[in-house]
Design a protein that fits this description.
The chain is globular. It has strands spanning about 1-5, 10-15, 20-25, 35-40, 45-50, 55-60, 65-70, 75-80, 90-100, 105-110, 115-120. Strands 2, 4, 5, 6, 9, 10 and 11 form a seven-stranded mixed beta sheet that branches. It is mostly beta strands.
Length: about 120
């Protein structure tokens, strides 16, 4: 089992920044990537950014150039630095431990989520 605890969400004005953290513990079979997902009200959950054990990184087009995903393997913590935030970034953000294969991330474990709200 993998336990994930997110923190760092909040309310910010458009153009501002937030840094999300996800503290991970435990282990899971086949877990080889970590990702950040978000779900806006009435929308489907979407992958925002992910990082594989080999270091390869994925960003959704909507956040490229504004968000940076990173991980500290000593602290077992995943981060998402979010700059130039826009109202459309408003969502619940979830950390996930994933299995990556065949160019697809499969989330296996989820955190409880942290709310990000961007005011215009």
């Amino acid at each position: 089992q993998v336990q994930l605890v997110e923190s760092g969400g909040g309310l910010v004005q458009a153009g501002g920044s937030l840094r999300l953290s996800c503290a991970a513990s435990g282990s899971g079979f086949g877990i080889n990537a970590m990702g950040w997902y978000r779900q806006a009200l009435g929308e489907e959950r979407e992958l925002v950014a992910a990082i594989r054990d080999a270091g390869r990184i994925y960003y959704a087009d909507s956040v490229k150039g504004r968000f940076i995903v990173s991980r500290d393997n000593v602290k077992n913590t995943l981060y998402l630095q979010m700059d130039s935030l826009q109202p459309e970034d408003t969502a619940m953000y979830y950390c996930a431990a994933c299995r990556y294969r065949s160019n697809t991330y499969y989330p296996a474990y989820w955190g409880q989520g942290t709310q990000v709200t961007v005011s215009s």
